[in-house]
Write a structure and sequence with these properties.
single chain; mainly alpha
């Protein structure tokens, strides 16, 4: 076989190998792009699901906090009313006391206790409106 023909065959073989390598590289790059796109899509989906779960957890925690604040306010109101009922009973029981000094001391104590009941009472003390949880709850509705 003449040398020119051998050189042509060698060059043709080299070109075919180069073409084959280029196609293999292009196929690998294409596969990488597809896999990368799929990975990014999965990560975006996971991030969206995680954000949704976190938002749901925050909303649930906020709802629980609002309910707890509501119950705390109701409990405080009941405690204040219970103190007032107790004081009325103490006054009634000691209303017939004959010692004027004892009655004066009792009335001072009753006035102090009524002041404490007012401090506890969320309606009289304004605590119901000062509570951040209840302000947020009022805006939510």
């Amino acid at each position: 076989m003449p040398l020119e023909r051998q050189v042509a065959d060698i060059v043709r073989g080299l070109l075919m190998e180069a073409e084959k390598d280029a196609r293999s590289l292009a196929l690998l790059q294409h596969k990488w792009v597809i896999e990368n796109h799929e990975r990014n899509a999965r990560e975006a989906t996971l991030a969206a699901e995680r954000a949704k779960a976190e938002r749901s957890a925050r909303e649930k925690a906020a709802a629980i906090t609002r309910i707890e604040a509501l119950l705390d306010g109701a409990d405080a109101l009941e405690r204040a009313e219970r103190i007032r009922r107790y004081l009325a009973a103490v006054r009634a029981a000691h209303g017939a006391a004959s010692e004027i000094g004892a009655i004066g001391s009792l009335e001072k104590w009753v006035e102090w206790a009524l002041t404490q009941a007012d401090v506890i009472d969320p309606l009289k003390s304004g605590q119901v409106w000062l509570s951040e949880e209840l302000r947020v709850a009022a805006v939510a509705f």
